[in-house]
Design a protein that fits this description.
Keywords: Chloroplast, Cytoplasm, Elongation factor, Plastid, Protein biosynthesis. It contains 4 helices and 17 strands. The protein is an alpha+beta fold.
């Protein structure tokens, strides 16, 4: 009885739109609102206690459904991400950083810092030109500045390789086919397998690099069996992965095992 009295305070005919306005509304009601509107019309035609209770229940259900829909997760959408050009100096240099030199993209392969007894330290950097595939090595004074390359990263899926060694990918956003020359895949080709989702890196509208996710899980398709009783620490053996690459794995890893691999270093991480 107390529940019904409380519901009476919530439901009033002032909050119920007249039937004429419901019929001529430009915006159609959403599915959770349909029972509420039907019970509202019923209450106006027959304002009985039972109809008031039915309307209160519809109001409560409609509110719960609307709240659930508001917080429902949405499907993940693959969207390209862009990296704006930023000024960095020698202290910010790290392996894998992409910078722009003379209008072209270069990737830092490795670097070394030479400290001097007198004067500023010098940094020697080995770069790879991501358009031409060539490498250069330059030495810079401490504090010299660079501009990072303005690149766009697009999620894509590997499909196949043709007879000429060109690789084909499907853009996960536009579903268009993208052809990438072998010179831009060379560093990653050992890790690419059919159907793999990865990133294509664009510079001024041109694909300059393929980036495989790291870490990534592969199946061991070939390796020698573990020697029973071999408990020596640090014992490793070669293993061929489902992508075709060969890495060193601990002795306990067997054929058919799923392992997590650091694709940037080409190293075993753990067995799954």
């Amino acid at each position: 009885m107390l529940w019904r009295q409380r519901m009476k305070l919530v439901v009033t005919t002032e909050s119920i739109p007249p039937p004429s306005s419901l019929a001529t509304s430009a915006v159609p009601p959403s599915p959770p609102q349909i029972p509420l509107l039907l019970h509202s019309q019923l209450l106006l035609s027959e304002p009985t206690q039972q109809n008031k209770i039915m309307l209160a229940r519809s109001l409560l259900i409609s509110t719960c459904i609307s709240s659930a829909l508001a917080f429902a997760p949405v499907n993940t959408v693959h969207r390209p991400t862009s990296s704006l050009s930023v000024a960095v100096d020698t202290s910010d240099i790290k392996n894998g950083l992409t910078v722009e030199l003379d209008g072209e993209p270069y990737k830092v392969l490795n670097f070394s810092i030479m400290k001097q007894a007198r004067g500023a330290a010098k940094t020697t950097i080995k770069f790879k030109n991501l358009k031409r595939g060539t490498t250069i090595e330059n030495t810079y004074r401490s504090g010299e500045k660079f501009e990072t390359a303005e690149i766009t990263r697009k999620p894509s899926q590997y499909t196949y390789e043709d007879e000429s060694g060109n690789y084909y990918f499907m853009d996960m956003e536009s579903f268009e086919e993208v052809m990438v020359e072998s010179k831009n895949v060379e560093d990653q080709k050992d890790w690419i397998s059919e159907g793999m989702e990865l990133d294509l890196i664009y510079f001024k509208g041109e694909v300059i690099e393929v980036r495989v996710p790291s870490p990534f899980v592969f199946e061991v398709v070939e390796t020698e069996p573990n020697v029973k009783g071999n408990t020596s620490q640090g014992y490793t053996k070669p293993a061929v992965l489902s992508c075709g690459a060969t890495i060193s794995v601990p002795g306990f890893v067997e054929q058919g095992s799923m392992i997590k691999v650091d694709t940037e270093k080409g190293e075993y991480i753990e067995r799954i």
